[in-house]
Amino acid sequence: MARKIRDASWLVDEAAAEAPAEPCWLCGRPLGKTVDRFHPIPKSRGGRDTVPVHPICRETIDANFTASELVRHAESGTPLTDNETVARFVKWVAGKPADFHSATKTGR
Ligand SMILES: [Zn+2]
């Protein structure tokens, strides 16, 4: 049984150590310089875990969901993009640079 020599493995390791590229929890794009932490289950409802999001994504979540709605989404495993406004936002922001930010339009 012949084994291939993985002579490029050091390259992979080094890249992984330098950039732990965690994608945004909401839109899935790479994060920029400013990273916001978001509670999928609000702190007021006992949520302790946070996920990394873009500031603009966090504002979109805050503008479109109440604490109760966030809990319902987290418990049922329904993605927030199930919300039409959020789905439209994610599609729209997909082509923007990671640090893109603008005055938030709430869509309400
Ligand atoms: Zn994002």
Overview features:
37% helix; single chain; mainly alpha; binds zinc ion; 108 residues; two-stranded antiparallel ribbon; globular; 6% strand
Indicate the topology.
Blueprint: H1 9-18, E1 36-38, E2 51-53, H2 55-64, H3 67-76, H4 84-93
Antiparallel strand pairs: 1-2
This protein binds zinc ion.
Protein name: HNH endonuclease
Could you characterize the architecture of this molecule?
This protein has about 110 residues and is mainly alpha-helical. The protein has a domain at about 25-90. It has four helices and two strands; from the N terminus they run αββααα. The protein has helices at about 10-20, 55-65, 65-75, 85-95; strands at about 35-40, 50-55. The protein has a two-stranded antiparallel ribbon. The chain is globular. The protein starts with 8 loop residues before the first helix and ends in a 15-residue tail after the last helix. The protein binds zinc ion. Zinc ion binds near residues 26 and 54.
How would you summarize what this structure contains?
By secondary structure, this protein is mainly alpha-helical. It contains four helices and two strands, in the order αββααα.
